[in-house]
Design brief:
Blueprint (H helix, E strand, L loop, with lengths): L11 H12 L7 H14 L3 E5 L2 H11 L7 E5 L4 H9 L3 E5 L10 H10 L6 E7 L8 H5 L5 E4 L9 E2 L23 E3 L10 E2 L5 E5 L12 E5 L2 H7 L13 H12 L1 H19 L20 E4 L4 H10 L5 E2 L17 H9 E4 L7 H12 L3
Length: about 375
């Protein structure tokens, strides 16, 4: 049987939660979305959150909360998802593309400073949209020191190590003026304490943080996102969007699944770690390279990427013969879709052509892990 490159981790608990919501006729935005926020706060310790239908909506509202003016610049990695460009363009803002390094797929302070130095004359850079690509965590603290508001996207990097006993979360940057309340339906909640006194503050440095819940995010509800602020000052800005129309808000049927996903995180992370250790040993016997993690032991094993020394097509064809799916890691990124400038972002462009993902998800059986491991070991 063919092993797919990706499969969402949906077990009986998630199915039961969704069925219960359906039986109770609670499928639109409502009480289960508020429960999701309470559960999420136990893990992330934010001040305030919105539950939304998509990460694109979350990015749109985060940028809107910063009160950016048409034409102003938003710094983004060339390996960010394609929808970043669409949202920025729809808001009449200017994307300022930043490169990455060949051994780490996220932008850093140096590549941002380079993009600032090369930005078109007359364009004012106003914020950084910081995507944690493939689960790798950029040095957000260093980037925040540039003095620009940061929107962190942890959709792929969420994991137990997000929490730290040190500190209480970054104070962030005041997000512009007070903003404007829109709409007339509930789509948010104050998370309260919910008995989470022993939980630790998240190691996040953004004014706002996006946690996507899409099919390929670390947690999934089948679609959706949380947009939250870690401290009260920035949370007060998000409260201006508390009455957004229900059509923007996460339905209860999705929130029910996401709530279970939060509770199952440790179990799923443990299995991901077991699989990654097997793959790593196999990769050491190849000529292909792995990315360097930003801090020892802090990678959540969202994926298992390799930067190839040979052609991507050759590897894909070889895997197909073994009935194993592999795919380009950055096919749907800005660089992979040709939306960023390859001359200004050469590392991102090169990685978009040479980086491949192998199947890594908790539902893989031991025999399947062994098959993928042998594939990695014998890559051309």
């Amino acid at each position: 049987m063919k092993i797919e490159v990706y499969s969402p981790t949906i077990r009986r608990k998630e199915m039961d939660a969704v069925l219960t919501a359906m039986v109770e006729d609670k499928i639109g935005p409502g009480e289960r979305a508020r429960l999701l926020i309470q559960i999420a706060k136990e893990h992330l310790r934010f001040d305030y959150a919105l539950t939304l239908r998509s990460p694109a909506t979350a990015l749109h509202l985060a940028l809107k909360a910063l009160n950016l003016e048409p034409g102003q610049g938003v710094l983004v990695s060339a390996l960010s998802p394609r929808y970043y460009f669409q949202v920025i363009q729809d808001m009449h803002l200017t994307p300022l593309f930043c490169d990455v390094t060949f051994d780490f797929p996220c932008m850093n302070r140096e590549t941002i400073e380079k993009a600032l130095a090369e930005k078109p004359e007359g364009i004012e850079a106003r914020c950084v949209a910081l995507h944690h690509t493939l689960g790798f965590r950029p040095d957000a603290a260093s980037i925040a020191e540039l003095g620009l508001p940061v929107i962190e996207d942890i959709s792929q990097s969420y994991g137990p190590f997000t929490a730290s006993a040190e500190g209480t979360g970054a104070e962030g940057t005041t997000a512009g003026a007070e903003g404007t309340a829109v709409g007339a339906a509930a789509g948010s909640a104050d998370a309260g304490e919910t008995g989470a006194g022993s939980a630790s503050a998240a190691k996040l440095h953004g004014v706002f943080t996006i946690l996507g819940l899409e099919e390929r995010d670390m947690l999934t509800s089948g679609g959706g996102a949380l947009l939250f602020a870690m401290n009260r000052r920035d949370g007060s800005v998000l409260r201006n969007f508390a009455d957004i129309p229900g059509e923007y808000c996460l339905p209860d049927i999705n929130a029910a699944m996401a709530t279970v996903q939060f509770k199952e995180t440790s179990r799923n992370m443990e299995r991901r770690g077991e699989i990654a250790r097997v793959y790593t040993q196999s990769s050491l016997r190849t000529k292909h390279k792995r990315f360097i993690t930003s801090a020892e032991g802090e990678y959540n094993n969202y994926a298992f990427p390799l930067v190839l020394e040979t052609g991507l097509k050759d590897v894909v064809a070889y895997a197909r013969k073994k009935e194993i799916s592999v795919e380009s890691a950055f096919e749907h990124s800005l660089a992979g879709a040709g939306m960023s400038d390859s001359t200004r972002c050469p590392a991102a462009y090169s990685l978009s052509l040479r980086t491949v993902l192998f199947p890594l998800y908790p539902r893989l059986r031991s025999q399947e892990v062994e098959r993928v491991s042998k594939l990695i070991m014998t890559l051309p």
